[in-house]
């Protein structure tokens, strides 16, 4: 299960070789946390090795456990034979590296789970293999058939004795779970039942309710008020009749009983594609790259079709995205601040696309900071703001090449700007890039605006379109005073 939490605002810095390129950038002292929810690039599933849990006396602080309803008990007994725990093992020694959940589907006996549960085996099949275990103790090998990396889904097939994949390898009592008819929409407040194998301690059922679809999300996701835990990723969420309505995928770290499900129709679509697929034997990086290329094209087109909205600044036109599938949060320096004062706005998508390890992509974000340094004077203001460029980071490292940057003095709507555009290529996903744009107003010696735009995992042409759109979003709100 991916964990979504209240994280500190993403900070950034320039590589040493490029620091000379910026004369002014964001003030170094502002490091306040943001309440913006972001997807954490966690490892797939539940790590096999965990520190010992901290135990508490349940009589001192823990609330009394709520008994399962008769419906939950009935459903668990009915579907328990169709639940599986999915394990990723090292090929060489058989030690597990992650665990998750899955379920057998009625049409053919294949297994549905999350992509992030099996990502290690999908990306490095020569190093990792997949196995399953059932409630009744049966276990066996799994073969990966197909993945949907954007919706975080995968389809697996059990291996029968002798090593051949078999649609009939469900085991005693397993008949497979059926999906709820798409013509029967869920009602707000309808009871749901999530099943899985939390924390590698045993199969469990969690009761909750349907709270509609997540608002302002580019990829459709169900808001489930149930307490999902790591290890339940890939398990089914059922209605009261035992029909699959979603797949467990994520929870919020900064909330209680705020969890998310992949809509069932996305799993059904992947099952259709997997029906004639052969088991995966080579790395799925090429297929994942193809899926991400389609995803970024649609994301870019949708983003560029939305006009920038006003930041409300009386002097400058500052590009702020529409909150159609993004959320924006603001912050300002304390009223008693002496020296450089600021107001900050940050906008970002709620979640990205998990690829594997510590690599997530497919996110757009913007940030701008409005500075007032009149109490400092021109020289102190310029020195303080110029020295802060070490905060601005651009992609690189294990998964991406070092950023290559270009700096220009430009005018947008007559407003003078210093603009820096940096791009970094993905090492194992050819054709995809991260692009970052910095733009700083240059008309005022004791104040101004610095903005930043970031796009992860976009095609080269789309990176240029997005950068151009962002720079052109700056301008004057009115004729500049002389």
Keyphrases for this structure?
single chain; 482 residues; Thrombin, subunit H; 2 domains; 6 helices; disordered N terminus
* Structural category: alpha+beta
| DSSP helix fraction | 10-25%
Strand order of the largest sheet: 17-18-21-25-24-23-22
Mean pLDDT: 83
| Biggest sheet details | 7 strands, antiparallel
What is the count of distinct domains?
2
Rough outline: elongated
Estimated share of beta-strand residues: 25-35%
Low-confidence stretches: 3-44, 49-65
What Rg do the Cα atoms give?
25 Å
Report on the structure:
The chain is α+β, with helices and mostly antiparallel strands. It folds into two domains: 2-41 and 290-476, no CATH class; 46-51 and 67-280, Thrombin, subunit H (Beta Barrel). The protein is 15% helix and 34% strand. The protein contains six helices and 26 strands. The strands form five sheets. A seven-stranded antiparallel β-sheet has the order 17-18-21-25-24-23-22. Strands 10-11-12-15-14-13 form a six-stranded antiparallel beta barrel.
């Amino acid at each position: 299960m991916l964990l979504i939490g209240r994280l500190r605002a993403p900070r950034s810095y320039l590589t040493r070789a490029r620091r000379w390129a910026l004369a002014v950038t964001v003030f170094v002292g502002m490091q306040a946390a943001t309440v913006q929810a972001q997807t954490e690039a966690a490892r797939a599933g539940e790590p096999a090795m965990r520190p010992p849990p901290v135990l508490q006396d349940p009589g001192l602080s823990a609330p009394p456990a709520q008994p399962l309803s008769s419906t939950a008990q009935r459903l668990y007994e009915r579907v328990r034979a169709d639940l599986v725990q999915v394990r990723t093992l090292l090929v060489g020694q058989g030690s597990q590296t992650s665990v998750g959940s899955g379920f057998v589907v009625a049409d053919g006996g294949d297994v549905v789970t999350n992509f992030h549960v099996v990502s290690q085996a999908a990306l490095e099949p020569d190093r990792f293999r997949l196995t399953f275990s059932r409630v009744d103790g049966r276990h066996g090998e799994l073969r990966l058939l197909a993945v949907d990396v954007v919706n975080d889904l995968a389809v697996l097939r059990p291996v029968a004795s002798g090593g051949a994949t078999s649609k009939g390898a469900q085991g005693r009592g397993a008949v497979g779970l059926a999906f709820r008819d798409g013509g029967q929409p869920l009602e707000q407040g309808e009871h749901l039942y999530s099943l899985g194998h939390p924390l590698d301690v045993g199969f469990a059922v969690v009761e909750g309710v349907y709270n509609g679809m997540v608002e302002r999300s580019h990829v459709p996701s169900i808001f489930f008020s149930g307490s999902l835990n790591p290890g339940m990723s890939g398990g089914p969420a059922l209605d009261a009749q035992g029909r699959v309505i979603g797949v467990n995928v994520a929870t919020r770290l900064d909330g209680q009983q705020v969890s998310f499900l992949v809509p069932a129709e996305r799993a059904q679509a992947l099952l259709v594609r997997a029906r004639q697929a052969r088991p995966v034997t080579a790395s799925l990086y090429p297929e994942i790259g193809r899926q991400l290329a389609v995803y970024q094209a649609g994301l870019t087109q949708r983003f560029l079709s939305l006009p920038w909205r006003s930041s409300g600044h009386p002097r400058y036109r500052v590009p702020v995205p529409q909150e159609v599938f993004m959320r924006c949060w603001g912050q300002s320096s304390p009223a008693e601040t002496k020296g450089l004062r600021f107001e900050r706005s940050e906008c970002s998508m709620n979640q990205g696309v998990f690829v594997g390890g510590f690599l997530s992509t497919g996110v757009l974000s913007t940030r701008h900071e409005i500075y007032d340094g009149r109490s400092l004077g021109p020289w102190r203001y310029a020195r303080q703001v110029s020295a802060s460029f070490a905060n601005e980071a651009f992609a690189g490292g294990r998964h991406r090449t070092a950023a290559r940057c270009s700096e220009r003095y430009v005018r947008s709507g007559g407003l003078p700007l210093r603009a820096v555009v940096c791009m970094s290529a993905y090492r194992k996903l050819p054709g995809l890039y991260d692009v970052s744009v910095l733009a700083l107003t240059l008309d005022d010696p004791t104040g101004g605006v610095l903005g930043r735009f970031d796009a992860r995992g976009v095609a080269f042409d789309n990176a240029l379109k997005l950068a151009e759109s962002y720079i052109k979003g700056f301008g004057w709100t009115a004729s500049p005073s002389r």
